[in-house]
Amino acid sequence: MGRRRGLLAEMRRQSAIQARERQRAQAAYVRQQAAALREAERARKAAERAANQVARADARAAAEAEKARKQAYLEARLAEVDARNASLHAGLEELDQLLSETLTRDDYVDLQKLKQLVEHPLFDAGQDGRPLPAPPPPRYPLEPAWPQFEPAQPSGLAKAFGKNKHERAIQEAQEQFRGAQETWHQHCRHLQAQHSQAVQEHRRGEQQRLQRLEQAQYRYRQECQERQDAVERQNYEIDVFADAFARRDPDAVVDYFGMVLSRSVYPEGFPQSHRIAYVPESAQLVVEYGLPTIDVVPTAKEYRYVRARDEITTTNRPVKDVRTQYASVVAQVSLRTVHEVFEADRDSLIETVVFNGVVSTTDPATGQPVTPCIVTLRTTREVFLSLDLSAVDPMACLTHLNASVSKRPEELAPVRPVLEFDMVDKRFIEESDVLSGLDQRPNLLELTPNEFESLIQNLFSRMGLDTKQTRASRDGGVDCVAFDHRPIFGGKVIIQAKRYRHTVDVSAVRDLFGTLQNEGASKGILVTTSGYGQASYQFAAGKPLELLDGANLLALLAEHAGVEAKIVDPDKLR
User: Fold this and answer.
1) Which of 118, 254, 274, 568 has its CA 20 to 30 A from that of 468?
2) Beta-carbon neighbour count of residue 521 at 10 Å?
């Protein structure tokens, strides 16, 4: 019994120990699970915090990127506005400086500087310019020598008892030596043959190279000669042109001043078209110059960017300002063109310039192309060169030159040219024209004074005037009285005819003006077969006088009377 109780007690003790161990293990497991849960929770929260931080960083980065994009777009739009305004102001300034721009450069065209110098490129033969490398000499191997094959001399007992064996060794060595020599000679002959073949191929290659080189040199010399001939032809043509210009050949004069006007640089939108005629008898150059329309003048005053609507708006200039600037453009181009003509004329070939500024456009009423003249002037060298163009007001300067300017140039309201370009007839016969003797057209210089005055009377009758021829006046007084029955613009017209070979003197123009005043006429017309000088045009400027030279007369006869005439000095045809 005692032992049983002890055993039971031991079992209870062991059981209690095991229970405590299980409790401790279970508690440890619980603590471990709790720790794992806490760690998992911490990791979850850390992940959430990290995710939130990333999200917040992405949002900030996206916001900053969007802000930067909007700022860049705003700056781009503002830069576009600045560029537009800069271009606008530069264009307006360029229009204001059309006249002053030409004063800073010399418009003279030096014909001699148009000549060219021949520039030949260096001859390049390429690889054919270098000789082919010569083949290297053959490299022969060393010739076999007997010592290389000779057997060693026997010694000791071999010398006494191996004599026969040594002799056989010598015979074998001699055979090997002779074979080696034969092989060496064959190899040398082969190398020599290869070298000879390479030398032959080198000679043929050199011959072909030299042939190609000679052909290339021949082509080079031909090309050089062609360049030389082309330059000499061009320089000769320049000399011929310069000589013709110095002789005041009308075609050469027209071409030269056409070159001068073509070299003038204008802003975009300016047509720069022109027609030129030259009357050598009166040293008069007539220029019909194409003017731009009012579209070349910007209507915008300023560009602005409206951020709320994301658009660029325009503030327009007052219409009056646009029209005023266009009138200034017309005046500046007129003065600039006349300035370029006189400045380029260092030989004083031109005494008088007639400028007609026309605009090529479409008549809105008919849809047909028209070229109304909106500014016209005639000025002499002396008068124009007395101007200080750097200080003038262009419009006031035109008034000073008695120019006729359209009252509404923006509407292309025309003015009457002081000289119609088509009235500058070029049908004068030069002394060198051998066909002039065969020309069947009537020669005005062969008419009698009465016949010539009758011709002038009939011409103005055809032009719509009521004419009456006066008695013979020996080129003084009144040759013809005409009446223009148009209201307001009409009245009595005094016509004086001069069948002259030489330039009409200014005294005839003064006499006509005196007769006009004595007769109480509204206009005086002087017609001649020759031309007028600078003094005549100066005197007639601003007065109710019209001077028609030989070229004008021929054009009027062809247009209104259907008469194709000519003006030729009969003495020069004999």
Assistant:
1) 568
2) 21
Confidence of residue 550 (pLDDT cuts 50, 70, 90): confident
* pLDDT level of residue 337 (50, 70, 90 thresholds): very high
Q: What is the dihedral sign for C-alpha 395, 399, 401, 404? A: positive
Residue among 314, 288, 286, 289 nearest 299 (CA) = 314
Please provide the DSSP assignment of 115-154 as one string. -----PPPP--GGGGSPPPPPPPP-PPPPP-GGGTPPPPP
**CA dihedral defined by 342, 346, 352, 354, rounded to 10 degrees?**
-40
3-state secondary structure of 323: helix
Query: What amino acid occupies position 474?
Result: R
Look at residue 524 and give its three-state secondary structure. Answer: strand
Crossing angle of helices 319-344 and 250-262, in 10° steps, is 130
Q: Which of 192, 99, 169 is nearest to 387 (CA)?
A: 99
**Neighbouring C-alpha atoms within 13 Å toward the C-beta of 31:** 6
Q: Could you tell me the two tokens for 137?
A: 């000499």
Query: Cα–Cα distance between 30 and 406 in angstroms, integer?
Result: 111
d(CA 491, CA 482): 8
Mean pLDDT on 46-74:
81
Q: Backbone phi, then psi, for 484, in 5-degree steps?
A: -100, 110
Q: Is the pLDDT of residue 568 over 80?
A: no
Instruction: Give residue 497's region: left, alpha or beta (phi > 0; psi -120 to 50).
Output: beta
Which residue carries 């163009």 as its tokens?
A: 389
Q: From CA 568, how far away is CA 574, in angstroms rounded?
A: 11
Cα angle value 302/305/306 (rounded, 5°): 125
Identify whether the C-beta of residue 371 lies closer than 8 Å to the C-beta of residue 358.
yes
Q: Could you tell me which residues are beta bridge partners of residue 315?
A: 302
| For range 222-249, the mean pLDDT | 90
**Which structure tokens are listed for 72?**
């860049």
Q: Cα separation of 276 and 356, whole Å?
A: 10
Predicted structure pTM score: 0.63
The residue type of 120 is H
For residue 267, give the nearest of 246, 286, 292 by alpha carbon: 292
DSSP code of 423? G
Three-class SS of 258-284: HHHHHCCCCCCCCCCCEEEEEEHHHCE
CB 549 within 8 A of CB 279: yes
What's the pLDDT tens digit per position in 373-418? 989 998 999 899 999 999 999 999 999 998 889 888 888 888 888 8
CA 359, CA 355: separation in Å to the nearest integer? 13
User: What is the mean pLDDT of the segment spanning 212-235?
Assistant: 91
- What residue has token string 């000519």? 566
